[in-house]
Amino acid sequence: MASGSGSNFAAIVEGCQSGKISAEVVGLIGDKPWAKVFSRAENLMVANELIELKDCNSKSEYETKIIEQFQTWQVDLICLAGYMKIVDQTLLSAYSGKIINIHPSLLPNYPGKDGLGDALRAGETTVGVTVHYVDELIDHGEIILQASFSVVGMELEAIETKLHQVEHELYVQAINKIISSK
Ligand code: GRF
Question: 135 in the Ramachandran plot: left (φ > 0), alpha (ψ -120 to 50) or beta?
């Protein structure tokens, strides 16, 4: 599930297509019609569906539509990849323990919309990425993997580029860790 650019989505798909991950990305659900992730899905030949909250009477109806699509696709694991909505109880209870997220900070530090920016503004010289199970709290839940790097002497643009590289590798590793524990 993604709302934006979808570089993590693409890294997961490419990981599966190249055999780095023994799994298949059966589909993408996006909630923003303009999101670049949809063109990435088309290029990578991944089924994709737009489901918008504005077309539903409630968040629960919205998540029920998502669950119906996941049931059609026979989904085993849901990877949030820049999905900018809070996952509510409807989806959480349907896929308990099967939803994971990537967040650009070393949780439990700097949850929220701008994990990297918050860490840098706080003067951190080491930043990082967390892949974790999703629970009812924001950017919370059991940590699967983390990776960090020093930002000393780096410009913001270079930090962001490095962060994305780290994210793409970490998400692949985290999914593999889940698969190998099954
Ligand atoms: C990533 O930084 C991820 O950690 C956060 O949202 C961003 C999504 O980037 N949750 P992209 O759309 O995968 O490029």
Answer: beta
